[in-house]
Structure formats: C-alpha cells, structure tokens
C-alpha cells in the first residue's frame, strides 16, 4: 500500500467508517487528483500538505452521502475551525462543486413549507440593505450562492416565527453539505438580523396578531436514499446513481398529526391541506428532476 493510501485508510478508520472504506478512499483519491490539477500546491492554504487528504475525505463523504464525525476530521487537521472551513469552501469552489442546499430542501427537512416565501423575501431584503453600505469591490467579492447566507436567513426566519423548538443552530451548522465555523455562522446571522430588522419586526407582529401562522410538521426518519457515486467536474453536477422516493416517505410525516385527531376530521384541517400542497410541489420538482436526468442520459 502506498503512503497516501495508508493515510486515507487511517483517516477513514478513525471515523469508524470501515464498511465504506473502499468507496470513500476511491472517491477521495479522485478528488485529490482534481485538487492537484486545479489548485496545485495551494501555498495560500494553511497546513496544505497535512490537510489535503482530510479535505478530500470530507468532500468524498459528502458526495457519497456518508455520515461522518466532523469534529474528528477537524482535530486531525490540527488547525483552527475558521481556517479549516475557509479552506474547504475555497477548495469546493475551485473544483466547481455546486451546493445542494436551498430554501426548498431546508423547508422539506424541517417540515415548514410555508416558510419558503418569507425566507426568500428576507434574503432579498438582506442583499439590498447590506449592499447599500458596501463598496463596488466588496459587492463583487460576495458569493450570494454561498450556503451560509441561505442558512443564516433560514435560521433567522425560524426563530422569529416560533420554530426554535424544531430547528436549532447546531442542526443547521451540522448539515452534511454545509461547511462553515460556528463563529462565521453567528457573524452572518447578526448581519442578517441587523439589515432585516424591520422585516423581522413585521413577521413578529403578524405572528403576535394571528395574521401569520407557520407550522413545523414533525417528520419521522426518511426512507429516501440518495447515493452519489460520481461527480462530473466538467458540468459541476453530481450524478445521482440512485434516487428512491416513495409515497410512504411523505405520508409518514403526517403520523403525529393523525394520532392527535379524529380520523374523520383531520383531513379537513388547514394544516393537512397545507401539507398536501407542499407534498404536491415536492413530488412535482422530483419528477421534473428525474425527467431531466433521463434526457441528459439519452443525450
């Protein structure tokens, strides 16, 4: 076994991912090769030679949808949390790895489809108000497609409409596809709160008056499987090898509602009707995505 192969093996074993060792190592080596091609020696990144295989392992796990212990990797990197995630973000951009996080996926995960338009409005207000105080150069340096702005806005919405019992900062920071430090996340949240102060006050007022109600539907563990066995570096898209979604997955999320209501009446509630609208939209988007994938494969 080569020295690099031994490093990957030891890292994977330290994460207790022995059963997935072969596919993680294969993907990590592929990612490492892409780093060599597109980043090179990366002298601007701290502890590059030490951290490079660690970054490759994390990106590989994220692509393969394998759960892993981030704290263990960070400890192995022997660098600060801020430097680690800043470098990881730089690497992903250099490799053209696109994000899978948006308001729809966050709302689906935490069971709050009605929150989506309010989060979208808040993000637009944040962009407009913050940019008023920035120079032209500073504006050009902002990556509005970055996950941190979307997730910070989503968190601000959740905690101001009464969703803090269903969503926490730790859950958001720990999202598998999200790479940032707690310090950076909290700094961004403060920016959103500062520049969206008026909008947040309006939301709170609507909630207090009863003009706005955002319900967080408690969901049971999902049976959906997304296995990303490959990544197309030319198009910047993950190739989904397997995507299984069943009607049972979304129906499970109604379990807690059904148990608390009479079977003959719960279907008439506003909560259930909102859920049906949300479910229809989600299945529509999934169906459209699968059709696009089939067209791409035919081409």
TrEMBL record:
Its GO CC terms?
nuclear origin of replication recognition complex
**UniProt record similarity statement:** Belongs to the ORC6 family.
Name of the protein described by the UniProt record:
16115_t:CDS:1
The molecular function terms of the Gene Ontology recorded here are:
DNA binding
One GO biological process term: DNA replication initiation
Q: Keywords assigned by UniProt? A: DNA replication, DNA-binding, Nucleus
List each copy of the ORC6 first cyclin-like domain by range.
21-98
Which InterPro entries does the entry link to?
Answer: ORC6_cyclin-like_2nd, ORC6_cyclin_first, ORC6_met/pln
Classification via Pfam families: ORC6 (PF05460), ORC6_2nd (PF21913)
**Residues of the ORC6 second cyclin-like domain:** 102-195
Compartment annotation: Nucleus
